[in-house]
Amino acid sequence: MSKVLPDTDGVDLGGHTAYGEHGRIMLNGEWESSKAIHNLLPEFIPKPIGFGKYKTEKKPATYFYLCDFVDMDIGAIYRENSETTQEEPLANRQDWAKFFQKLLVGVCKLDLATNGPWTELEQATAQVVAKVIPRLLGALTSGGEKIKPCLIHGDLYEANAGIDVETGEKHSV
Fold it and tell me: pLDDT (tens digit, 9 = 90+) per residue, 48-87?
């Protein structure tokens, strides 16, 4: 999107919108974490510009997060053979399988509360929590090995990382 700000000739902006209390919490979290990441590694993510609530009477409330726009070639970063992420260690967790189970159950409970019952999702969640997570994460630590998890980005997936088409630099958004 492109927006003319009061004290500029115009600036290209990127960003997100979300709705309701969950949207406010999510985008405020993105705003706060982006400011912290940008202060430490300004070349890693676009500069955060702002977070707020649209002036509208529509329900649910609509929130926004804005940052500098970076025109990226999303596929370029995956075609390279180089390291593409900055890693920051997470707090020490004694049992990552249990931690991840709790995290997944929490997300699924939120979905249930927001969208109502969905039997197939509830059954799939129960199977993943009871069988898949212990087999995957539990197996990684069964011989006393440690998992060294790293926080890469709060919302990292293929569409959030790419190469700046103007500078050739790697970016995450």
Answer: 999 999 988 888 999 999 988 877 765 555 455 333 333 3
Whether omega before 60 lies within 30 degrees of 0, making that bond cis, reads yes
Nearest Cα neighbor of 52 from 28, 77, 34 is 28
DSSP 121-148: HHHHHHHIIIIIHIIIIIHHHTTS----
* Segment 82-92, tens digit of pLDDT: 333 333 334 44
Residue 79 belongs to what H/E stretch? helix 76-79
Angle between helices 119-127 and 96-115 (to 10 degrees): 180
What does the alpha-carbon distance between residue 151 and residue 134 come to, in Å, rounded to a whole number? Answer: 21
Beta bridge partners of 89: 150
Question: Cα–Cα distance between 73 and 59 in angstroms, integer?
Answer: 36
Where does residue 172 rank: exposed (0-12), middle (13-18), buried (19+ CB within 10 A)?
buried
List, for residues 112-143, the tens digit of each pLDDT value: 888 899 999 999 999 999 999 988 888 887 77
Separation in Å, CA 134 to CA 91, 101, 139: 21, 9, 7
Tokens for 173, please give them: 């958004």
